[in-house]
Amino acid sequence: EGExxxxxxxxxxxxxxFIHPTSSIQQQQEHGPAYIFEKGDGIxxxxxxxxxxxxxxxxxxxxxxxxxxxELAEVAKEQMEKLAFSSAFSTFSHKPAxxxxxxxxxxxxxxxxAVFFTSGGSESNDTxxxxxxxxxxxxxxxxxxxxxxRKKAYHGVAAASTSATGIPQFWDMAGTFMPDFVHAExxxxxxxxxxxxxxRQVIEQEGPETITAFIAEPVQGAGGVIIPPDDxxxxxxxxxxxxxxLFIADEIITGxxxxxxxxxxxxxxxxxxLMTFAKGVTSGYIPFGGVVVSDEIHDMMKxxxxxxxxxxxxxxxxxxxxxxxxxxxxILENENLAANSQKMGKRLLQGFERIKKDTxxxxxxxxxxxxxxxxxxxxxxTNERFPAEWKVAGKVINxxxxxxxxxxxxxxxxxxxICFSPPLIIxxxxxxxxxxxxxxxxxxxx
Length: 446
Ligand code: PLP
Hints:
Pfam family, one: Aminotran_3
Distance between the termini: 50 Å
Structural class: alpha/beta
Bound molecules: pyridoxal-5'-phosphate
CATH architecture of the largest domain: 3-Layer(aba) Sandwich
Family: Belongs to the class-III pyridoxal-phosphate-dependent aminotransferase family.
Protein name: Aminotransferase
InterPro entries: Aminotrans_3 (IPR005814), Aminotrans_3_PPA_site (IPR049704), PyrdxlP-dep_Trfase (IPR015424), PyrdxlP-dep_Trfase_major (IPR015421), PyrdxlP-dep_Trfase_small (IPR015422)
Oligomer: single chain
Keywords: Aminotransferase, Pyridoxal phosphate, Transferase
Order of helices and strands: HHEEEHHHEHEHHEHEHEEEHHHEEHEEEH
Largest sheet: 7 strands, mixed
């Protein structure tokens, strides 16, 4: 028997049976999958043609420990053999979830000590909205139902998180699901004063007594790696306190060392009332997420809840995922990966600054830890953008693929932003190699 032409087969099977998440069906039907990855090792991914790429996005901003960590696989195997799954509903419990809840409470911002587990980011944000409303309901203010989010926010694709997402393209498919979501301005091309004024206006317009919570990513990821001015979140916190609004930090990308601190809000010493996490908590080795709530919210639940809390996912506190998360956090701490993220992020920024200086189409460059962006503009002196139809970001991304680097473009609102979010284990030499390739790719398109 001859060899099955496996790659051809896989292409056809993919086109026939696999509806890809966040993808173009048209493109899939025309070309099939561009890359079929087979192996990961450290910061590298290898496809089924044997080509190796730098995974400069940690895949979906999540593979913080890098690929191929056998310690995580071993822990998963051990837990699966012992107790792969059992329920955490009602009065059932198990050791991995209990120990993980304690661990997360110990690293979360002060005063946030109780965790509700989920299977991912969207579920975490939907859960945070429900817990926030539940808090107000228990407090005798069920009319506090609205959520303030921001433009360019990405909070996921479940019902409520789609509505919280502030990138309208995500509403095109099926519309938003909930009427109670309002989007304020974000500090992109706007300073703190203007962005805060917009939040205040939304609160005043909607009526403070109707608002449950404000949600924000410490650094907006999918919106284009938007790093806020230093005073922005402190001002947001003050505003929330002034109107008695809960503050939800969506740390789904920024958590677990991504920005050079364990959690993003630590950069500005801002305490959220609820914090959502996913992605980096298991470095993507197994789906997982959760919401940490303040003692005030937890106490309110303890004091005033009467019946059952009718909210729970089958996989809330999944034993195997919990065991992997515990080990993942252990490694993050032992290898000082938040500190490495901070150090490598600075080196990455220096590299970006050199590219900006030596080329003619780079505008703003920024990093916070290992979350970074390079903005491509027609005129760096005025920041005038390229016409969208030139698809400049797409061209640079393709040039990067050709040079063995996988990055992600953000082209909403006619921007041409290239995002970077490499594994936190990356070293100086690998940063320099990546920067050289970006340099080359920009020159090739320029
Ligand atoms: N929140 C943020 C900030 C995200 O970046 C994402 C995913 O990219 C989500 C929420 C949704 O998480 P998930 O895709 O795990 O549902």
